Structure formats: C-alpha cells, structure tokens
Amino acid sequence: MNQGFIKVCACTPKITVADPVKNAEAVISLFEEASEQGAKVIVFPELCLTGYTCQDLFYQNHLLQSARRELIRIAERTSGSDALVFVGLPLEYQQKLFNVAAVLQNGKILAFIPKRFLPNYDEFYEVRHFTPGKEEIVEIFFDQETIPFGGNILFSVLDMEGMVVGCEICEDLWVPNPPSTNHALHGATLLVNLSASNETVGKDSYRKMLVSSTSARLVSGYIYASAGEGESTQDLVFGGHNLICENGIILAESERFAPGIVYGDFDLGRIRHERRKMNTFLNEESKKYHTIFIEMDVEETKLSRYFSMTPFVPSSKLERDKRCEDILSIQAGGLQKRLEHTKAQKVVIGLSGGLDSTLALLVIVRAFQKLSLPMENILTITMPCFGTTDRTYDNACKLASILGTTLKEIDIRQAVLLHFEQIGQNPETLDVTYENCQARERTQILMDVANKENGLVIGTGDMSELALGFATYNGDHMSMYGVNAGVPKTLVRHLVGYYADVCDVAELKIVLLDVLDTPVSPELLPPIEGEISQKTEDLVGPYELHDFFLYYMLRMGYEPEKVLKVALLAFKDVYSKEVIEKWMQMFYRRFFAQQFKRSCLPDGPKVGTVALSPRGDLRMPSDASASIFLG
After folding, report:
1. What is the pLDDT of residue 213?
2. Contacts of 616 (CB under 8 A, 6+ apart)
3. Annotated catalytic residue, options 11, 46, 253, 437
C-alpha cells in the first residue's frame, strides 16, 4: 500500500447450487489464498453462498438460514485480516428477500449492500424472488449486531488517503445511471461489482467494454467478479469472466470457464492525480451517504503489475503501427492548417541527416501531398560545419533528392569562424560557445532564407529534448512551427521506422534504416576518424530513461520515490539502481532549470497525453525550485 499501490482480486469459487456449507468452504479457501498473496480488497460473485441459479429455492427458509450461518462462519475466518471482503448472498429483511453483498473485515460484518436494479427480461427473472434495494441506509439486527443496510455506503481507509470503496451488484452496472456514478461523485476511487453474468456469443466483449469504459468515465478502479463453474446449466452457462480495470485500462482478466482468482495492482495515486487535474470531475453532496471508516496496515505491496520501459510506445505492433499513423496524420494536419492560414507556399527545413529532421521532413511531405503543393517548394538546407560526418551529410542529400525537394548546401564554417573572431572565441576551445555559435548560425540562415522565399521555418526538435532543455536557446530551439514538439524521442524512432516499412520506394527505405542506425548527435564537435564523437545519450543519459521519467512525472503525477520504484521494476534487467538514480537526478535538475526555454516555445501540435506547451498542458514558472524533487 506504500505510494498508492494496492493489491486487489476477483474470485470465482466452484460452487454447488443450494449448498451454502460447501460454497462457504470454497469461499474460505480462496479468501485464504488471496490473503496470503497480500490482496487488500477481495471480491466474490453475486449470490455465491447459495448459487445464483437457485430459482424458487430462494423461498426456502432452510436455505436462507444456512446462508446466514455460513456468512457468519466466513466472517469469523476473516478475523486477523484487514482485507475488505465482499460476498454475495440472499438476505431476508421485513419478510422480503434482497440480493446483497455482505462486506466483511477482521471478523466483523461491516454492512449489507442490496442490489438496486433487478433484471426481469430475457433469461432473467429476479423480480420473482427479490425486492429492489434502496439507497437510504437503515440498520438491521444480524447475529447480535446492528449492521447498516442500504445502497449509499462507502468504505474509507483511514491509513491510505484517497482509498474509498463503493459497491454495486451485476445489473446495477448495466443501467443508464448506475449506482457507481454516485459512488464516484461522492468520493469512491475503487468500485466493486459482485456479478452473475451468463455467457452468450459476444457478451464477453461487451462486458469487457462496459467495465473498462466505466472505470475510465468514473476515473476509478473497478473490480468485477462473476459467477462461474457450478451454477446450474439448466438454461444458462456462467463463465466466471473476472475483470480488474483502472481508468480505462484492463489490468487483469480471467480465463473464462476456469474458476479461481485474478489479481491486479491498483494505483490509487494515479486515480487521485487524474481527478485533481479534471475540473469537470465534480464531487457532490446531493445524496446522503454513510461512510464506514476502516483501518488497514500500510505495508509494501509486492507488485505484479507490468511497467513498460517505453510507456509512450505500444507493445503490440498492430497498435504501434496505428499509433504511428495517427501521429503522422496529426503532425501533417497541424502543418497543413498553418500553411493554409499563412498562405505560405514554401517551407524551409534544416536537414542534418539525423532522426528528428528526417521525421520533420516526412511530415512536411505528407502535408504538401494533402495540399497538392509541389515537392520542390520544400527547401531542404544542409549546413555542414565542424562536426558534420560524411554519413549524416550523405543521408541528408539522399533524402532531399529521393523526396524531390529543393536541396541547398550552405557551408557555415567560415561564417562561424568569423563570428568567433568577432566575439573573441578561441576556435580550439570546444566549449558551449563553440557549439551554440554553430546552432544559432544555422537558425539565422533558415530564418533569412524563409524571409527571402516567403516560406515558414519548420522546427525539428522533439519533446524529449524540450524536457531536458537539450536545445540551443534561440538556435535549434526556435522555428515558425515545430512539428515534432509533441513527440518523445523513443517514439520518433518508431515513426521513422514505420514510414520505412510502409513506403514503397526502396531507395528511401534504405536511407531511413541507415538514419535509424546512426547515433543520436547534434554533431557540434569535430568527428574522430570520420565517426561521430559527440553522442547525446553519453552526455544527458539514455532517452528511454528520460522518456520514462517524463511520462510518470507528468502523465501519472508520481513523486520521485515512486518514479524510481517503477523504473527499477521496468529496467531491472537493463540498468543498475545507481545508473537509474544518476540519470533521474539529471532529469529533474534539467527539467526545472530549462523551463525558460519551454516558456517561449514555438507553436506545434500536441499528439499524445503528455505535452510541454506553455499554452496548453504545462503552465510552469521558469524559476520553480527542484529541491524537493532532488531529495
């Protein structure tokens, strides 16, 4: 439970219809297994103590009394456990039957929550046996205790800020205005559903969509536990389709027709972060709720949750290709609109033969194709200087030629040496002035050519460089429209690779693959024996780490300790703890120190859930302190 993580589970016991004694044994067995695994919220299916398919046997007092006794036995077995346990059973109150969830913890029955919406259509006949529950809370006498009974009950964990649990039962979720909506609006961050959802062709897909979309709409965790093996197959079959979702993402899904437990690790910190950001997610006090405060031991959660090393990049090739196509379309669409608005017929781009400028050129080509503009109106300028290698120079020239652009070479060596002389810079001193003079000279040329040709300078810098401030202020930092501003470095590589895969020009594919194979470098220092001497990742660290830090800091709102925790899990076979800590310190230090560069960022399209534009996602003071983030 440290840092907002909590292990939960959905359990489907193999039951025997109308035998609460056997069913209680099955429930206890799975409860003990889940407790050993550290689960803090344990959810069983609807009416699992008797079986959902008892039909008119629900009227039998003998069955109802047996279910009561077995519930008490299960509650006693939870003694010593701080896990919150939800078990389904029929309960009689004022000579009416209710389909309820009994909520247990540490030997006690905390509450009974009745099903609100009873299906009585197609294969369902619940109104024959049960009475719809009400939102209002009453107290009933059960096993020598008075216990709250009603729909509007929430469970708040005292020792874990933001962990508030709400409950609904099966059909409650499938109606237009489910109880879970009000639960979430009154503070519930984790929702549970005790269900008995039978299987028909295609129903599993709809069920999955319904649960995941509900967790997304309510910005919550959602545990869905469904009835399975052992229910009567007289007319229906139950598959035990269990789902654990978080804010639209399916964390875990059971195999159908296989009873057992499915586990998931909820990240309550992420849910709280999302709700803090969403001003349209408005809590309300329009309904009266009863909150039961409970205690749980705060302990380390052994995470089984998967953390990708590249959170910006989908793991599935199919999904990754779709993502790449979407991003290229967004980038090209943004540039298309800017060209239409300014009535510019030409663009100017500095083409280095590196990854970023290659991607920017591919985006420009797409925009020109959409606007039916001639490719020769793309003015590609290569500006060799002290650090330029034959490999990048050749690739730049080949790209410009294959794509049909107008290539112009402007060697800037003499101009930079003259500038060195004017400002008193020793050309043998390979310092930041030596490097930045080259970057600013290139930008000045691009801007002046754009003025001369009535065109727009297209920026090539990516989001990872902006996050680290790894750009020369008023050099490559500046443009008239930055098409790559929303694309992290780890995704730039995949975009260029995707373009290579789908293009039908063999020569272009060869060049793109060689660009991908070239080390990332600004090429501002002289090469060594013709090879790139200045490798960006040797200076600022691996971009895969920095993109990981950026994603979990901005998208998830993780504090540094939590970022480190998940980074150690994701990169456990790649980097040592010392290496991760070193570059994480570098990331936070540069991210805060370099905000002034982002504060005057050129326009550029947002393509994903993380963006650094000062006009959009990141309104951050340029002089904010990083001290509490550096530890």
Report:
1. 97
2. 606
3. 46
Q: Pairing between strand 153-157 and 290-294?
A: parallel
128 three-state secondary structure: helix
Asked whether residue 201 carries a pLDDT value surpassing 80, the answer given is yes
Active site residue 11: no
Distance CA 28, CA 22 (A): 10
Token representation of residue 237? 């079959």
Calculate the CA dihedral of residues 511, 468, 559, 600 and round it to 10 degrees. Answer: -110
The CA-atom distances, in angstroms, between 438 and each of 10, 389, 422, 473, 521 are 60, 15, 14, 12, 14
* Residue 402 Cα distances to 112, 378, 504, angstroms: 71, 13, 12
The reported pTM is 0.91
**Predicted local confidence at residue 1, as pLDDT:** 59
Instruction: Please name the residue ranges forming H helices in 159-281.
Output: 179-185, 203-217, 268-277
The single residue of 7, 115, 562, 565 carrying the catalytic annotation is 115
Spatial separation of the C-alpha atoms in residues 494 and 358, rounded to whole Å: 12
Q: Is 324 assigned a catalytic role?
A: no
Predicted confidence (pLDDT) per residue in 243-253, tens digit: 999 999 999 99
The C-alpha torsion from 119 through 125 and 126 to 128, rounded to 10°, is 130
CB contact at 8 A, 403 and 375? yes
Token duo for residue 73:
């036995």
For residues 251 and 268, is the Cβ–Cβ distance under 8 A? no
Which amino acid does the sequence have at 175? Answer: V
- Select from 387, 357, 31 the least CA-distant residue to 225: 31
Q: Give one DSSP letter per residue of 184-206, joined into a string.
A: HHTT--EEEEEE--B--TTHHHH
Tell me the backbone φ, ψ of residue 204, rounded to 5 degrees.
-65, -35
Reading the block at residue 609, the tokens are 């859930």
Dist CA 580 CA 560 (whole Å): 12
Per-residue tokens: 501: 């895969």
Band (pLDDT 50/70/90 cuts) for residue 595 is very high
Q: What share of the chain is helix, strand, coil (3-state, %, to 5)?
A: 40, 20, 40
Instruction: Kindly state the helix (H) or strand (E) to which residue 515 belongs, with its residue range.
Output: helix 506-517
Which helix (DSSP H) or strand (DSSP E) does residue 563 occupy?
helix 560-570
pLDDT confidence tier of residue 526, bands split at 50, 70 and 90: confident
Asked if 115 is an active-site residue, the reply is yes
Q: Which of 48, 54, 167, 170 is catalytic?
A: 170
The predicted-structure confidence for 470-522, as pLDDT tens digits, reads as follows 999 999 999 999 999 999 999 999 999 999 999 989 999 999 999 999 988 87
For residues 284-292, give the mean pLDDT: 86
Amino acid in position 428: E
